[in-house]
Amino acid sequence: MALEQRSSGGSILRALRVVEAVAAAGDGVTAKAIARRLGSPLPTIYRVLGILVEEGYLVRLHGVRGYGLGYRIAELHRDLTEQVVPPAAVRMILQEVHGGARAATYLAVFRDLDVVVAHLDHCTEHPGPNGMRIGEPTPSHATAGGKVLLAGLEPTRLGEVLAYSRLPRLTSRTVADRRALDRELMRVRSAGAAVEVEEYQRGVAGIAVPVRGPGGEVAGALGVSVSRAEFTARRWELEHAVRNGAGRVARSIVVLPGAAAQP
């Protein structure tokens, strides 16, 4: 039984590695190229590819004689996004904050131990930070919205979240030391707002405030992101915009997506 379990686990892992290899290579990658990339026998790769194509996770692209990601992958991403996407009324408020503040505007929530972007309203004139995408995790210690959510946790749960994330240093300004982060979170609790300046991405800064739930708990964080130069010039204007927006969001909803799974 143990041997069968190891064999099954190895097959699953191999299939996942094949999907990752196709995603990294892009449309048209061949079975031989995948086999070389993964160091696996070609017959094994052909067998895995056949199963993945049959199940919709990959497609066979006959025009280029290779493989590409299947549409089932897109379906899974949509399913994931729908787990955290806020109601239409909340998305409209974020859109209005974006337009009024002239800044990319986002809502962050907890999904178990991860801080996830529930919604991001931006445009070419007011782009969001690189790597910040709807439905995907964002570094809790390096973003203003993440720090707001961390500041709302009880000490034990805060320790669990930080042990899980491990505080990677993303820029020279990232707060990657636990004691320094604890001091920063104290300032966030006192001010009722979190600021990040080039901690997540060089040249980018932002501010976020809590979105309170019915019982006063921190149910989410509403933040904006702009260039560092613009933040220096408009800091108080941006804070007023996010505080006003967060209050409107809190009044428009009962429970944010992901709130039931919050730490």
From TrEMBL:
Q: Pfam families recorded for this chain?
A: HTH_IclR, IclR_C
| Keyword annotations from UniProtKB, A to Z | DNA-binding, Transcription, Transcription regulation
Q: Name one GO molecular function term.
A: DNA binding
- One GO BP annotation here? negative regulation of DNA-templated transcription
Q: Residues in domain HTH iclR-type?
A: 9-71
Record's keyword annotation contains Membrane: no
Q: Where is the IclR-ED domain?
A: 72-259
Under InterPro entries, the record lists: GAF-like_dom_sf, HTH_MetabolicPath_Reg, Tscrpt_reg_IclR_C, Tscrpt_reg_IclR_N, WH-like_DNA-bd_sf, WH_DNA-bd_sf
Question: In its keyword annotation, does this UniProt entry include Transcription regulation?
Answer: yes
This protein's name? Helix-turn-helix domain-containing protein
